Request: fold
Amino acid sequence: MLEMLTALFLLIGAAFALIGSVGLARLPDLFMRLHGPTKATTLGIGGILIASILHFSDQGQGVSLHEILITLFVFTTAPISAYLVARTGLHLDARNGDNVD
Amino acid sequence: MKRWLPQPLTSGCLWLVWLLLAQSLTPGHLLLGGLLALVLPLFTVRFWPDRPRVRRPLLLLPYLAVLLWDITLANLVAARLILGPARRLRPAFIRLPLDLRSELAIVLLTHTISLTPGTVAAHLSPDQRVLLIHALDVDDEAALIARIKQRYEQPLKEIFAC
Reply:
């Protein structure tokens, strides 16, 4: 039962991580591409980490909680890198005379 | 008190993070984590130009619950947009006038925006009054701004009293 639940969360996580990557590959411009990795991957990673909590808590060494920290770090760093990439994109656009601001 | 424990909330978070990293509640780790939580803020307090004042920290919990729920929804929405026909997307840059004044609150709002449905924060104006947001598919600009203001900015304003 637990194994099935673990597998389910792994699959959900993998599916969203894949969708995020697909978005990165097929959306037309830089700013739209940013949406894939910042969002779809958060749930992708979330799903995989839930699976990890389930699996390693069942190994007889108590509840595994490192995953909470990983979630925290991913959720705090993903928007920052997105922000930096977006800003760089804006600067490049501005330099090419395509003024967005 | 203020001198030896300049940022009680940071200290608390550090202690918690240490205990989670060690994944144990033995006296040794409690003590070591407590020591680090006391000492680290003494070194880093200088990096904070204005000390963030959290007026009602408990309100962060419902905020986080709403945020987690929205992130889950955001993923479904983003997945649909990404897998659907790209031609039908209506991407746009949106200016969000900010009412928040505390830097930490603005950072939290920026994170929230980047993690929730179809929006990524792209640029903060130098005077910290306008946040430029890129949205993947905009139907009604005013509605989106109103939604962000009411759902995220308002609670943050209450939490940080600014």
